[in-house]
Amino acid sequence: MYKNRLLAACLLTMFTTQAKAVEIGPLEVHGFLSQGYMHSSEYDFLADSDGGTARFNEFGVNFMYDLSDNLRGGMQVVSRDMGFLEDNSPMIDWAFADYHYNDLLGLRVGKVKVPLGIYNNVLDIDAARSQIIPPMSLYNFYLRDLTIAIVGGSVYGNISLDDFGDADYTAYIGNVPIETGKSFEGMLQLTSGSTLDEVENSISSGINVKWNSPYGLMLNASYVDINDIEFAGTDIATSIPYESKMEMYAYSLGAEYVWNDLTFTTEYLAVSQDMDLTVTSQFGSFTTSSSNLIDGWYAQASYRISEQLEASTYYSVSYRDSDDKDGQDALAAGSITKAFQAWHKDIALTGRYDYSDNLTIKLEGHYIDGAAFAFGTPDKRYWNLWAIKATYTF
């Protein structure tokens, strides 16, 4: 059935590639439809990929309205299916009012995207990136709920540096809209084998600075701090309930260099987590504290072969604990059963074909060392995954 859905979606877009955005006066309506198929040789990765799945899609529509020369508003509604992580429930991806005073100063209020890393702002737009699955070292889907958006406000602007190009900045603060049954619960299932029964919104603040040089080089730095993430759930193996409070901060450094049709990108991300965990059983309650640093990096190259064809590759490295990169401490503590569960090292190769301005088709392969982000019995260190995806935009 899912393969038939994939074929139908691809055929639909093939015959509707001349559709354009809807414009009604100052109102613009855009949208996208993506359908993919994933297959992994081992494990479930992001979706039910072991054995193959077409539960790998997203649909979205957005509206932008110009209220005046300086003021506009808009929102985007997205529905996503990623197997056990997402179930096609519609959600508001972003919704804000934007007042652009001048190039130096603007203000957004509402649900706004968090600029963590170079590409986080466009992570939900498949046609805006080369890969089907971006590098997990920077754009970890299991951390998505914590890092993709806030409900609050941001200030932004662009500063001219004359002969040295210009700089963009964004600073923001607001609540983190975490939900049960989404990616944060997937992270808990992966790292601690527990469910998420309830969660309180927490406060997130941060800043992003980007330097756009006149030499094809762009440098980016981001910082985000998330306070008082309070949540509760149940240990799956023992059915024992727990309560937890977590503090988290993350920073990233990145560079992008464009030379003719070649684009080189590299980024580094570090995520620090401090957690207090309270477990309640028939023997009473007790609290434990822990801290760890998740970090990773990637290097990527993309080459535009022609107007329609692009090839890209990246090498991505992630560690669940930077102080235990070989997994020996986690093995001794019993939190993992194989050392290779401590890391995720991914070599990816993508071919992108822009059939038209509206339709993009991608084919991608991954050769992966480690099982840090994989679900299933950890019996093989090396495994592979391939994916195909068609995206239609208007």
Task: Give a written overview of the molecule.
By secondary structure, the chain is mainly β. The chain has a single domain (2-393), classed as Porin (Beta Barrel), CATH 2.40.160.10. It contains four helices and 18 strands. Strands 2-3-4-5-6-7-8-10-11-12-13-14-15-16-17-18 form a 16-stranded antiparallel barrel. The chain is globular.
Summarize the structure in short.
The protein is mainly β and 394 residues long.
Number of strands: 18
How would you state the average pLDDT, rounded? 88
Strand content: over 45%
> Any idea of the CATH topology?
Porin
CATH homologous superfamily (4th level) name: Porin
Measured distance between first and last alpha carbons: 26 Å
Which CATH class is shown? Mainly Beta
Question: How many strands, which pairing sense, and closed or not: the largest β-sheet?
Answer: 16 strands, antiparallel, barrel
Shape: globular
- The CATH architecture assignment turns out to be Beta Barrel
Uncertain stretches of 5 or more adjacent residues: 1-18
Q: In terms of structural class, how would the helical and strand content be classed? A: mainly beta
Helix content: under 10%
User: If strands are numbered along the chain, what order do they take across the biggest sheet?
Assistant: 2-3-4-5-6-7-8-10-11-12-13-14-15-16-17-18
Tell me the count of domains: 1
Helical element count?
4
